From TrEMBL:
One of its GO terms (molecular function) is serine-type endopeptidase activity. Keywords: Disulfide bond, Hydrolase, Membrane, Protease, Serine protease, Signal, Transmembrane, Transmembrane helix, Zymogen. Residues 376-389 have a biased composition (Polar residues). This is Secreted protease.
Length: 446
């Protein structure tokens, strides 16, 4: 009877061990399947692939028959046109046409005239496609005499140049996703990019001259990298080469605060009317809208052209931080006026131009498809993108990784325990057989 019970116990133990092996294998399989995708290295910007319907129509009709495009509140593309035939073609393509008086050629000519006038620090101008105007703004530092001279230039161009005074001061937001610090000041990390050999942070050019050394802490112990290939003024972008050469795990995620991030899946040009999000270490995640393109800003440090104008707020320290929509990279924070209490205007360096000029590629999530084109982020309403934890090499402890049900640790522990149980039952069975053998023959020979 006792031997029968032992056989039952051994049999149950072996069955439990086999079941543990199967369960552990299933856990490992599920954990591997649920791991966030590794970043795909090297999604280049392709102007042809990232354009929207409105942009395609403007390109096909030409600058003499159109005056820009935008998305309305319902997310439908709108194209400004100067003749009825162009309007009919836009409607046939499924977009909405708006008849305007001045073409894109007229708007760009007006901007060129303003650019050729004597430079006035604290002013900006941008192409307002929705109102078919060029908007000139002057901040609180612009004197009455300088503003009067600019007004005369605008009146000489025509009635489609609108003059506005704005509160605050147009300044770069130096001082922001995650903060990076150097003797030049404090800025924000933008997007991670690569040239195929090394990884870099794409950030604002005004953050520091080439050779600036950046740290993740204010004591100068945790070195991030060194600035190179900066362009400011004129443009506003630069690279920070990682000290270790690689961005590490989570390179495709931009921080939005509280340990959370947004997974970046592509890159595109911004559109007027587009809902966008901006992240910075000073003011966190903020939402706004693209109000104009091809903006020129006369900062005290110099003039920057080709910027994206938005109504989203920013504060000192947000410079270089990412602007995106639906996981699509759009720009890095340059500067602006106002703050996140009273609101203001913020300008962004387009990511597309920076990638082209610097000859680097955006590091994106594998869910972008890698080989496929980046989709346009031109929806009238938008979300930041798919969320993801902000991680990095060495962020989690070994114990945390082993006990996280999304990782392979628990499954491996179950498999190891089951193997130990199988080996133990075999050893116990062998020892019991040897003991029985000795007892039997000892009694026979005795």
């Amino acid at each position: 009877m006792r031997h029968a019970r032992r056989r039952v116990v051994r049999r149950v133990t072996r069955l439990a061990a086999v079941g543990g092996l199967l369960l552990g294998g299933a856990m490992v399989t599920q954990a591997v399947a649920s791991e966030p995708p590794d970043p795909t290295i090297g999604l280049p910007y392709s102007a042809g692939a990232a354009t929207s319907k409105g942009t395609d129509l403007v390109s096909s009709l030409g600058t003499s028959r159109t005056a820009g495009n935008w998305v309305d509140s319902a997310g439908k593309p709108v194209v400004a046109v100067t003749d009825e035939e162009a309007a009919a073609e836009v409607k046939r393509a499924g977009a909405r046409a708006k008849m305007v008086r001045h073409s894109m050629s007229d708007l760009k000519s007006a901007a060129a005239t303003l650019r050729s006038a004597p430079r006035v620090s604290g002013t900006s101008w941008a192409l307002d496609y929705k109102n078919n105007q060029v908007v000139v703004r002057g901040d609180s530092t612009v004197s009455a005499s300088d503003w009067s001279r600019m007004t005369e230039v605008a009146e000489g161009i025509g009635g489609f140049v609108r003059m506005e005074r704005t509160e605050g001061t147009f300044t770069p937001r130096l001082n922001g996703a995650l903060p990076i610090l150097s003797t030049a000041g404090r800025c924000s990390a933008g997007f991670n990019v690569t040239d195929g050999k090394s990884d870099y942070i794409l950030t604002a050019g005004h953050c520091g001259p080439d050779g600036s050394v950046w740290f993740a802490d204010d004591r100068g112990r945790d070195q991030v990298g060194t600035s190179l290939k900066g362009s400011f003024p004129g443009d506003d972008y630069s690279l920070v080469k990682y000290a270790g050469g690689r961005a590490g795990k989570g390179a495709e995620v931009v921080s939005v605060g509280d340990g959370e991030g947004v997974r970046i899946t592509g890159v595109a040009d911004a559109e007027v009317g587009q809902k966008i999000f901006r992240s910075g270490s000073t003011s966190g995640l903020r939402e706004g809208e693209v109000t104009a393109l091809n903006a020129t800003v006369n900062y005290p440090e110099g003039t920057v052209t080709g910027l994206i104008e938005t109504n989203v707020c920013a504060e000192p320290g947000d410079s270089g931080g990412p602007m995106f929509a639906d996981g699509i990279a759009l720009g890095v924070t340059s500067g602006g006026s106002g703050d996140c209490t009273a609101g203001g205007t913020t300008f962004f360096q387009p990511v597309t131009k920076a990638l082209t000029e610097l000859n680097v590629k955006l590091i994106v999530s594998k869910q972008a498809g890698g080989a496929g084109p980046a989709r346009s982020a031109s929806q009238g309403t938008a979300s930041p993108g798919s969320s993801a934890p902000v991680t990095g090499e060495g962020v989690s402890s070994l114990l945390t990784r082993l006990t996280d049900p999304r990782n392979v640790g628990p499954g491996m522990l179950v498999i190891a325990g089951s193997l130990v149980a199988l080996v133990a039952t075999r050893w116990i069975r062998a020892e019991q057989d040897r003991k029985a053998y000795r007892q039997y023959y000892s009694a026979t020979w005795g």
